[in-house]
């Protein structure tokens, strides 16, 4: 039996094994909370908890399932600061809720889906149907609490990720033992509006329901010395979160003295009409065909099962970070090991993996195509035109590596640098990209915002020029200037310390899709198999590990799961909708 679970504003497909069909609906609901919502989508469980009580973060949530089973969710919330936001109040308190699964079907099947009844009744359900996760605050006048038995109580420990707010870092399930299931004396009783928000758990999380809310107080950060202009009142105050920057210039301005140098050209695709058609042919190759494992040759999105910090493996299509697909030129000057391999330029393998958490066996660089070369030729012309007067940028390069990155369903990337630098500020030799070259991003699809923040070491700098936003719109070409990531003295900040910019992207809303074709000039090479593009591994790299075995199992399970087909159709529809909005070809 297959069910589509509607919870936390999303739909999560679940296959019910014969063993799970023998559970009661209450036991199944508990199993979904413990073993599915914590793994299938790293944000789902925190979305649900925030919907239950959107005014504060609680340490304990008691959930009753209606068949005598119950859970206590104990939460270790992240203490990470987010610029421009403050966390909701943290309360040592507990809220008591009833939670049930309710099929979206009419007739007698509704009466069979009671918490105390088995999932698979005599009169069978359809082979596939939709189910709502329904939540209501217990002890209210409209909803008496479900009874439960103490020996059927379980404790679920959740830890929020320090870097990825709202995502599960670690979780652990244990039996109630009289210690771990102790509840605080304080009880949270939400306002009426909070109760209403908790009742419809399948309603998408509104902007006002986020755990982080805008702060009007100046952030406690490292303060750079004020410039003369700011003292005169001509600069924006620190209380303004960001300055929206449309740095579209015809040629690079060599008068920069430390401010952000990265620029965007919104008119790129209008100047080179052929690049948009070429880009959509590349994207058609990825999105209009079924996804498949990296050892399978052909069109479609390449799958990868990823595991970070020893957590449960998650498929790359579902992870909170953007989706990444790699293509690379063959280095014709290098001699391959045999007729079945080629030497290609790569990005991201300087530290041994292409994407953080991806095992080497599931990394692949597919072959560069004529469509990619059309776009690369146009970008190379723009590099010469815009940066030939800038001695800090090497424009005499040929782009040879492409990462197609996709943002959908709130996928994001946190503050980071593309290149690595030593503690002394020197460019690391194991960087894959050539030093002094721009990263060039051709934007296709819905608009998103790229944010830049100046850092001194690991501390954020507070200054009008230290925090910037750049709008990435359909058809634009963005240039990440190499000096922005370097540890250098920046005159306008008057700090007498080396600083660098990091950037991040918070993605797009659930129904939208924004794609970046990221071109680079790389110097690192790796051997890959022709056709599939899989990395050729040494005996050392191919050694079996616990993480590799975990990812292998996840990949096999996903390939055989009916939800793979659903996800392929979901992404195909999302892509075609985006294409209809933005492309007239």
Indicate the percent of residues in helices.
Answer: 10-25%
What is the approximate shape?
A: globular
Number of strands: 29
Low-confidence stretches: 191-249, 252-256, 350-355
Amino- and carboxy-terminal Cα gap: 42 Å
Coarse structural class: alpha+beta
Question: What's the Cα radius of gyration?
Answer: 26 Å
Number of helices: 12
Placed side by side, the strands forming the largest sheet appear as 2-1-7-6-3-4-8-9
How many strands, what sense, and barrel or not for the largest sheet? 8 strands, mixed
The portion of residues forming beta strands comes to 25-35%
Oligomer category: single chain
In round numbers, the mean pLDDT is 81
Structure description:
This protein has 12 helices and 29 strands. It is an alpha+beta fold and 585 residues long. Strands 2-1-7-6-3-4-8-9 form an 8-stranded mixed sheet, sandwiched between helices. Helix 8 (274-287) crosses helix 9. The longest helix has 21 residues, at 562-582. The protein is globular.
List keywords for this structure.
12 helices; 29% strand; 585 residues; alpha+beta; 8-stranded mixed β-sheet
Element layout with pairings:
Elements: E1 2-7, E2 10-15, H1 18-21, H2 25-35, H3 44-52, E3 57-64, E4 68-76, E5 85-87, E6 90-103, H4 108-112, E7 128-137, E8 148-160, E9 168-175, H5 192-199, E10 212-214, E11 222-223, H6 228-231, E12 243-245, E13 263-265, H7 268-271, H8 274-287, E14 305-306, E15 314-315, E16 323-328, E17 341-345, E18 366-367, H9 370-387, E19 401-407, E20 413-416, E21 439-445, E22 448-456, E23 459-462, E24 467-472, E25 477-480, H10 482-485, E26 488-489, E27 498-505, E28 514-520, E29 525-529, H11 546-560, H12 562-582
Parallel strand pairs: 1-7, 3-6, 4-8, 11-23, 12-24, 16-18
Antiparallel strand pairs: 1-2, 3-4, 5-10, 6-7, 8-9, 13-25, 14-15, 16-19, 17-29, 19-28, 20-27, 21-25, 21-28, 22-23, 22-24, 22-27, 26-27
Helix pairs in contact: 8-9
